[in-house]
Specification:
The chain is mostly helical. A two-stranded antiparallel ribbon has the order 1-2. Helix content is 59%, strand content 7%.
Length: 138
């Protein structure tokens, strides 16, 4: 199987589109959270809320990556995440990719900027998790 790697800009625009979709997911999840926990001034609220959103975002990405390898934005831009040998991600690989991506983004976006110097334009979390983002030819 020949893997065709998408360019940096295709991946970056897909990432921006993903951000907009994720914003809607976070909005709905936040609404539900605030219905349940009404006291926003309590000491446990902010860390619990942040952890909750981290779990919701993780569930979103991990489910899509393990069920076809494409989020909604990736479907639009015709890219897919696969393992190094071209197979669909299992849950362990998807969780690893998600956690490394979160860390890379929190470190001033170094995980994303890595794609500028990578020979295949892969993000750092793809290199470390043993995954690849490929372009789908139709």
């Amino acid at each position: 199987m020949t893997l065709i790697f998408p360019g940096f800009w295709r991946r970056f625009v897909s990432l921006l589109y993903e951000f907009l979709i994720l914003l809607a997911v976070i909005f709905i999840a936040s609404f539900i959270f605030h219905l349940i926990f009404r006291d926003a001034n309590s000491f446990y609220f902010i860390p619990l809320y942040q952890f909750y959103l981290l779990i919701i975002m993780g569930y979103y990405f991990i489910w899509f990556w393990t069920h076809g390898g494409q989020t909604l934005a990736m479907q639009t831009w015709k890219i897919r995440v696969v393992t190094v040998d071209g197979n669909t991600l299992d849950k362990r690989k998807a969780i690893t990719r998600y956690l490394i991506a979160v860390i890379g983004i929190m470190l001033f976006g170094i995980g994303i900027l890595w794609a500028l110097i990578d020979r295949d334009h892969q993000f750092l979390h793809d290199r470390l998790a043993g995954t690849r983002v490929i372009r789908i030819e139709n």
